[in-house]
Specification:
The protein has 3 domains: 304 residues, no CATH class; 101 residues, Immunoglobulin-like (Sandwich), CATH 2.60.40; 106 residues, Immunoglobulin-like, CATH 2.60.40. It is built from 11 helices and 26 strands.
């Protein structure tokens, strides 16, 4: 069940990009043809159904699965949406929840999410079934009649007209409906029947049931319902003529005065966005040629950008095969000024599903002094992350060494290493001159007069341009350093978990898992700590 929920969650995330885009594009097409705008919602349905995407140079959605996890009890999940700050923040919370809950109950956070998801599906399904059954009971005594060439059903127990059914949809009218409104109501519901909106509403309801946990699906459901009504309004006015705008608006208003049928109802004439529909009917004009062209172009751009995935850049030489495993270099990031290096390697395959991949190899040349971790991201699939200070020349190829046999596994080309620039900051403090080399993921701090003694301890803080002061590191640092706030402001250590090493020559190194925005830094200051 956890694997099914993971697939649904991945489809939901990729679909969210398109749903958000459609909501924005729809806003800019207020005067566009609603019939064409409904095509955008068809694209959303396609996106939520297809687990795979075509890569293109225009793709906005990040390639690959956003959420990966293993069904094994000793592994948590990893989120990889393509946005590093979001990924790190979410993964940290997932890992905290996993460790706290799984150790006590044996139930992982993904098991719990799966059960909640299934419970939501049952609740919503029950709601829709009861709503449908309730409407069926209310129209069971409906009497057939013919109005303006269409067979309709008159009923005493419904508040407003609607179209109901799947195979043979019927038009239901309240018995007390105004005679003046009947031709417009029948024309409107006939338009729904011709457009197959009754099927669209059911399909949209199924999407809502499956993806109920995504707020954007609820917004999309409401907007789709409105756009279908707008499209039918436009169709009726276009067929009858502009001289019927006022009478059609009066029909809408009269049918909206009755009691509403609840959140879910079939395609009902007077129950969805009546005020805005009346305004649009009164202001309706046949779309100009250039308006149709602009709408068509925006729909095509939306489809190309959000139905395709971002094209991966070529990474020749990034895969090593060894003993049935594949070692795939996901990232090699470095900074020459600070000596920082971060390496992320995906490991796949292997015959033993219980292998501890961290024991498969222990060395990367050049050596990286810092932290190393391995996280399960799928069945027989792990991600290894090494973060810290590079020992030796970082311009050379990355070599993996088998821990037990002390033999070379293979090498990744040095051309795959991506470098980030560092900025230099210099300050005069009570402890002497301090030089700071800071990059997005690392910081090298050099105190010319060496590390101060314990009586002169202080906190090196970052003065941000927005007035905040962030704690960078305590000097001299302690092994039991805790993530505390400094003067009520955000501490770097609490948001940018990293590694720090103090050396006798007065050099302190820090590496961050999450990026620091250098443009937001005003200056540094060493504050005495009492």
């Amino acid at each position: 069940m956890g694997e099914i929920f993971r697939q649904i969650l991945n489809l939901s995330i990729t679909g969210s990009f398109l749903m958000a885009a459609v909501i924005v594009v729809r806003f800019f097409l207020q005067k566009g043809s609603r019939n064409m705008i409904c095509i955008l919602w068809i694209l959303v349905g396609i996106r939520l159904l297809l687990p795979v995407s075509i890569e293109s140079a225009f793709g906005v959605v990040p390639a690959g699965e956003a959420v990966k996890y293993s069904a094994r009890q000793d592994e948590a999940a990893v989120v990889d949406t393509g946005f590093e700050m979001i990924d790190n923040a979410v993964n940290r919370q997932i890992l905290i929840s996993y460790r706290a809950g799984e150790n006590e109950s044996g139930l992982t956070v993904w098991d719990l999410c799966s059960y909640i998801w299934i419970a939501g599906i049952f609740l919503l399904t029950g709601y829709f079934v009861l709503s449908w059954h309730g409407l069926k009971k209310r129209v069971r005594m409906a009497v057939p009649d013919y109005q303006y060439g269409e067979k309709v059903y008159l009923c005493d127990d419904i508040p407003s007209p609607f179209l109901m059914g799947i195979i043979h949809p019927r038009i239901y009218l309240p018995r007390g409906i105004s005679e003046d409104a009947i031709p417009y109501v029948v024309a409107h519901e006939t338009a729904h029947k011709a457009r197959r909106d009754y099927l669209t509403k059911w399909i949209a309801s199924l999407f809502l049931i499956v993806y109920w946990f995504n707020p954007l699906i609820w917004i999309s459901y409401v907007l789709l319902s409105r756009d279908m009504e707008f499209a039918c309004d436009e169709r009726v006015i276009r067929q009858m003529g502009a001289e019927h705008k006022k009478n059609y608006s009066n029909a809408l208003l009269s049918c909206a005065l009755g009691k509403q049928s609840g959140f879910w109802c079939p395609t009902a004439f007077g129950e969805v966005g009546v005020k805005s529909r009346i305004l649009k009917v009164l202001q309706y004009k046949k779309p100009a040629f250039w308006g149709i062209v602009v709408t068509t172009v925006l729909i095509l751009l939306t489809a190309v950008c959000f139905l395709t995935q971002r094209k991966e850049t070529s990474r020749e030489g990034s895969v090593i095969a060894y003993k049935g495993y594949e070692f795939i270099l996901e990232e090699a990031l470095a900074c020459k000024e600070t000596g920082f290096m971060r390496v992320r390697i995906r490991v796949r395959g292997g015959e033993d599903p219980e292998v501890n991949v961290r024991d498969l190899y222990a060395y990367v040349v050049p050596m990286i002094s810092g932290s190393m971790g391995a996280l399960g991201v799928g069945e027989n699939e792990w991600e290894i992350s090494i973060l810290g200070s590079c020992i030796g020349e970082m311009d050379q190829d990355l070599t993996l060494i088998d821990r037990f046999e002390m033999t070379e596994i293979g090498t990744f080309s040095a051309e795959l290493i991506r470098y980030e620039e560092a900025e230099e900051f210099m300050i005069d403090s009570y402890a002497g001159k301090i030089t700071i080399q800071a990059s997005a993921h690392s910081m090298k701090i050099f105190l010319e007069d060496g590390l101060p003694n314990i009586k002169e301890k202080g906190i090196l803080a970052i003065e941000m341009k927005n007035g905040e002061r962030w704690k960078a590191v305590r000097i001299p640092s302690r092994e039991d350093e805790s993530a505390i706030d400094f003067q009520g402001e955000l501490s770097i250590k609490s948001s940018l978990a990293g590694e720090e090493d103090g050396e006798e020559d007065g050099t302190v190194f820090l590496a961050f898992k999450e990026p620091l925005k250098l443009d937001d830094i005003q200056s540094f200051v060493l504050v005495p700590e009492k």
